[in-house]
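Bench notes, afternoon.
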Amino acid sequence: MADVLSFKEMCARFDVTPRTLRYYEYIELLSPQKEGRARFYGPREVARMTLILRGRRFGFSLEELRQWLLIYDHQGTEAQNRAWIELADRQLGVLTTQLEDLQAAIADLRQLRDDVAETLET
């Protein structure tokens, strides 16, 4: 059982709350082994959690991640990789648009700040 993590160890390893871990189990992103009330997370669940957290960082919804993980279970690696490319391409477009919007907002705010600062100097 050296490669198995307890519920508490899983929370600590991924810096998530118990509520988050339970929720991921509830929506079927994770399926830990259960012994009574205890939950144990093996290599598969650790790998899935790593993918889930990376996906969240990239801006994917939990449902998108759940569907993507199901592809592996039902169709295998190649289908999952093809789906990943489609998801990544779409999300890269979304993130690029957000970046452009942020850059425009920063430029506008900087200009407004400089305009106001200039009125204080005169």
